[in-house]
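Morning run. Coffee first, then this:
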Amino acid sequence: MKELRVDELAAHCASSPESVLLDVREPWEVALASIRLPGVVHRDIPLGSLAQRLGELDPSTSIVCICHHGVRSRQVVAFLDGQGWPSVYNLRGGVDAWSCDVDPAVPRY
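And here it is:
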């Protein structure tokens, strides 16, 4: 499984201009605290809806999956890897690590 540390996220997205940040948390979590990078496409699809909404994603793009601590996003990466998607990454530590290590303005919960 491919993973990115939070300190690698911005550089990865800059080097892959078609990157998508796929947030698989629940809507209330996204409203509370989110990672937003200028110029990067953000998709919010809760884990429980992913199978039904898979058509909203392009398997040819680089997709970085994020959640609160990196557990749910790991499940998504494993699922998409199993579907043969070539460029899917888990954000290690999730939004919580981002809040601690990159942007303390993003609330921890």
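The two ends are 26 Å apart (CA to CA). Good start to the day.
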